[in-house]
Amino acid sequence: MAPLIDRIHKVFRGRTNHKQGDGPQNLQQDTIRQQPLSQHDGANDRAQPATAPQSKATVSKAATQTGTLQVALQNQTNSSTVYAYITGQAIQNNNALFLLQADARTPYYPPNPSQTGTKIGVNISIPLGAPGNTVTATIPEIAGGRIWFSVGAPLVFAVNPGPGLVEPSVFNPSDPNINTNFGFAEFTFNSSQVFANISYVDFVALPISLTLQDTSGHVQHVSGLPSNGLQTIANGLTAQTQKDGRRWSSLIVNNSSGQLLRILSPNSGILLNPSWFQPYWTDYINAVYSQYSSQPLTIDTQASFGNVTGTVNASNVLNYGAGGSFAKPSAADIFSCSTGPFATGSNGETNTIIPRLSAAFNRSTLLLSNNTPNGTTASQYYTNATTNHYARIVHAANLDGLGYAFPYDDVTPDGGAPQEGAVFSGAPVLMTLAVGGNNAYAA
């Protein structure tokens, strides 16, 4: 079976280069990318359900039939100052920039402003109320959607000419949200299905879980982090730095009061500090290229190209013939999965090799088998001393071990266990997101 991204892209016509986080496109104003995303994740406490389950008798039509989806937003923090925001592109309104107003049901389509950083003209902060409270929102079909949460203070959004949404940024020190505790989930909801996930590709902050119920009563659940999950990750990164002396603990970000606020991914850390991790992968990369100069590396594209075989040639390049050639990547290339030899282009075969090769580097499985992704299982991921320890530690901290920890974390061996933590359905009835990690559980 092909990886989830390849299957979902057929439905959503999503990006070839699967990058969840937008990154610092512009350190002054991060404007939303006008393209659909393709990921997902989950939550619902069995002991204290976020929403009452609906019986089959009360479920008549799927959201894909009605054109609107119910989204339950639950406060599972210890704070009464929690806000939600829903943004994206309105599919039935010519993909216009969409924001949901504070009443959780009224759409707002910002007009095209004449100046950058124009203030949003309506209140889009949805208050979630006291801990344990749930607010149910109604949304139309949306592409490239995000559901944002903040604790302690509302988020500040703006609009640029286009119009384009200026989102909260973890990259810009002068961003008004830089000291606010926030996070988001990503989703697409169209006439075919809903597809959603939480993302750790750019950073980890608020615990967010997601649950999806369909018309048959089937429930998909991805647990996310418990309430102390961020601290667990910080402890793990600190321990890894003590072990290997690398920059893992530098990814930890405290607020102005010295309290743990968020943790950056290695890619985000490198974007802000280009010297970080520069020599980290060197020895591992050299060992990989040495091994495949004397034997082939087979990659199952899990697509029409089938199995493709490459070897390292005299120019020290991993050559796949029609599938392209791959020079030795840098640390930034490996962590980003989208630069250097991993930059996608017009060659479809190359674009199927890149996700699988990128994932194998991040998981450090290339010296374990000469067949990827089918030559190894999840129990072998991150077992080399040189690996993406951020991804390893983030997965371990999640109650079910699931979540996107790097852009191609949805690459899966045929019949293997998914790692990305996605929920999707062609007959959705209710999608529930819980923020804060209290009462989090593994299904």
Automatic annotation (TrEMBL):
Recorded superkingdom: Eukaryota
Biased composition, class Polar residues, residue ranges: 51-61
Region Disordered, residue ranges: 37-61
Domain named GH64: residues: 66-427
Protein name, entry field: GH64 domain-containing protein
